[in-house]
TrEMBL record:
<dbReference type="InterPro" id="IPR035086">
    <property type="entry name" value="DgcN-like_C"/>
</dbReference>
<dbReference type="InterPro" id="IPR027417">
    <property type="entry name" value="P-loop_NTPase"/>
</dbReference>
<feature type="domain" description="D-glutamate N-acetyltransferase-like C-terminal">
    <location>
        <begin position="145"/>
        <end position="338"/>
    </location>
</feature>
<protein>
    <submittedName>
        <fullName>DUF1611 domain-containing protein</fullName>
    </submittedName>
</protein>
<dbReference type="Pfam" id="PF07755">
    <property type="entry name" value="DUF1611"/>
</dbReference>
<feature type="domain" description="D-glutamate N-acetyltransferase-like N-terminal">
    <location>
        <begin position="60"/>
        <end position="139"/>
    </location>
</feature>
<dbReference type="Pfam" id="PF17396">
    <property type="entry name" value="DUF1611_N"/>
</dbReference>
<dbReference type="InterPro" id="IPR011669">
    <property type="entry name" value="DgcN-like"/>
</dbReference>
<dbReference type="InterPro" id="IPR035402">
    <property type="entry name" value="DgcN-like_N"/>
</dbReference>
Length: 354
């Protein structure tokens, strides 16, 4: 449901993104500022034909280095700005490369806060060559106000003790695991990288707050009784800055099951270090109490730990200890294994009251 700043035709809230992609790395030197590109490479490798960077860049995705014309000849349909810099700006030094992509037959997809169509040179070139400038952070038109009414189908939402600790990766891993078990499931993206991976979605951080829960309802509509929508979470319900979008997603997605994502090495909120990280138990309790407003049957399916900074044995021991302490399955979705299998089975299990 990514909206399109269309140069040659009207936008459509249901339009899927043109792919395969050529991933543009700009002049990025730090991997953390290329997380969009790395996320696409990891989760949608079949969509990624190559990488294109300025000479000063120091990032390598392990993909073929292709100029836009070469990528277009190999079947690419769009250049994706794979950079997520601070402030979400499009650097002046990138413009010649972006113009080259448009001239050589590629649309441009951007998840930046800056709008492609606001840059005169890109707008003029796109108009001249009949190409699209697609801004991911543009919500679809006519989002309805939420109703709170129960919808058919089943839903799982990833929630977090903080921001930027793995809610997207957990949701993608869970959706993949469901599919591997023959479960009819869709990953529902709510952020720019997730939208590029899935090909559609709604950027929740760009939706006017009064319509955010309605956007979540629109994102996960009525479905078959045995269908699962796995919804990518945003923010944290106890984050002073981002709790609003978290609560809107909780009420609007009406999850039957939620999975709490947590970084065990983090002690304070990212970007708000004066606030201590809330314990997992508090997030579980609040999510159940607030989520039961639109789904009284909501339950916690388990905990997804981000153990990327731990050795394998340390991670396994921590997950086992936390599982015993909390009485719920605990696993690192990226590491997988029996602990993650147990988490998936618990998420899919019928509620005890049914």
């Amino acid at each position: 449901m990514a909206n399109v700043t269309a140069v040659t035709r009207e936008p459509s809230s249901e339009q899927e993104l043109p792919h395969p992609y050529l991933l543009f790395l700009g002049d990025t030197v730090h991997p953390g500022f290329a997380k969009t590109a790395f996320g696409l490479k990891q989760w949608a490798p079949e969509l990624c034909l190559g990488q294109f960077a300025l000479p000063s860049a120091q990032i390598d995705l392990g993909l073929p280095n292709l100029r836009p014309a070469e990528a277009r000849a190999k079947g690419a349909r769009a250049l994706v700005i794979g950079v997520a810099n601070s402030g979400g700006f499009i650097a002046a030094s990138w413009i010649p490369a972006l113009v080259e992509a448009l001239q050589d037959g590629l649309d441009i997809i951007s998840g930046m806060h800056a709008r492609l169509g606001d840059i005169a040179e890109l707008r003029y070139t796109a108009e001249r060559h009949g190409r699209q400038l697609i801004d991911i952070r543009t919500p679809p038109p006519r989002i309805p106000i939420a109703t709170g009414l129960k919808r058919s189908g089943k839903r799982l939402l990833t929630v977090g003790t903080d921001c930027a600790l793995g809610k997207k990766y957990a949701a993608l891993s869970i959706a993949r695991a469901f599919a591997e078990r023959g479960v009819d499931a869709d990953f529902r993206a709510t952020g720019q990288t997730g939208i590029m991976i899935a090909g559609s979605g709604i950027p929740m951080d760009a939706v006017v707050s009064d319509f955010a829960a309605g956007a979540a309802e629109l994102l996960s509509p009525d479905a078959a009784p045995d269908h699962w929508d796995v919804v990518e979470g945003q923010g944290s319900i106890l984050h002073p800055a981002y709790a609003g979008v978290s609560l809107a997603l909780l009420h609007g997605s009406q999850p039957d099951v939620f999975v709490v994502c947590h970084d065990p090495g983090r002690t304070h909120l990212l970007g708000d270090e004066q606030f201590a990280l809330p314990p997992v138990e508090e997030i579980i309790d609040l999510t159940v109490r607030l989520g039961s407003r639109t789904n009284p049957a909501i339950r916690c399916g388990g905990i997804a730990l981000n153990t990327s900074k731990l050795e394998a044995q340390e991670a396994e021991a921590l997950c086992a200890a936390e599982s015993r302490r909390l009485g719920l399955p605990v696993a690192d979705p990226i590491r997988g294994g029996p602990a993650f299998d147990a988490l998936i089975e618990n998420c899919l299990a019928a509620p005890a009251s049914s």
